[in-house]
Design a protein that fits this description.
372 residues; eight-stranded parallel beta barrel; 38% helix; single chain
Length: 372
Amino acid sequence: MISLGFRAARPLLGALDAERAHRLAVLALRLWPAASAASDDPRLAASAFGLSFANPLGLAAGFDKDGEAISGCLRLGFGFVEVGGVTPLPQPGNPRPRLFRLPADEAVINRYGLNSAGLEAMAGKLAARGGASGLVGVNVGANKDSVDRAGDYATCIAALAGRCAFITINVSSPNTPGLRGLQGKEALDDLVARAVAARDAAAASGGRRTPLLLKIAPDLSLAELDDVVGVVLARAIDGLVVSNTTVARPPSLKEAELARQVGGLSGRPLFALSTRLLAATYLRVERRLPLIGVGGIDCPEAAWTKIKAGATLLQLYSALVFKGPALIGKIKRGLVSRLAASGETSLAGLVGSDAAALSIIPTSGLPPLGGR
């Protein structure tokens, strides 16, 4: 029913300003009548961070920024959703316009700037769910004008630990000045140490130990990636999310005028860059922690390639703008079909099986994707 509603509304949504269309989509999912999502094929089940997922496909952070439509998003058939990013204090983000569709490229550029209703509002949304089913992660960030950004992350984690399935530390948004600098070795080590301490203090006071993940940029050099992985393993972070949006503009982009907009690029053009970084990360963590693969997943073949590059779990967002919620079921069915053809009984045995090859192939040489 939601897919039918999207097809009917697509001409209207496409004619609207991109941010207004986004807000209408969130509102529709918030108000959509309750219904149970169809059961998943048991072969799609996945385990990561001590959690069990009915399927590996998740909704990436950035769609439901303030946790307004959590139940509606889960009913689309996702195995988990990630809300946020949330900042300690409310902030409006960057001036509009700040969201741009690139239809010919099936891509999006955003420069939202972590617009957030704030930590108190997010905690209230999570509390209102009570014991509702579904795995919900929260992406956390720092206020733009903060004098102690590492402290902002610790504040968010202390407040949210035990209230959600996992927390993602977002140091890779390109739309908050200086934020990506927190991926540097010394700054990241300090931030992660304080984040882990905040999480552990919350658990010690009677809460559940909440897994902490780190979301990284696709634009890292291999030397920078080595530093990130070193910190993550030393500080016992539970997982990595690879990756956020890119500040790069591939020369293949067709929407040349729109491509000049400042902000992070996501969607199909991000697939190659993010997949190569995913494979390189997988080789470096050596199975010591699971990875979530994000960036350009818009068909079953893209999801399959991400898994073979090293992803235990997957996330998408931008592809929904162009293909709608029917894509979720299509990807899951495609994964089951590929599993059956491979002779494997679960996706776990395929994770990282092509990482060595995909990590060294130039992004222009990654395998073409069919069925888009």
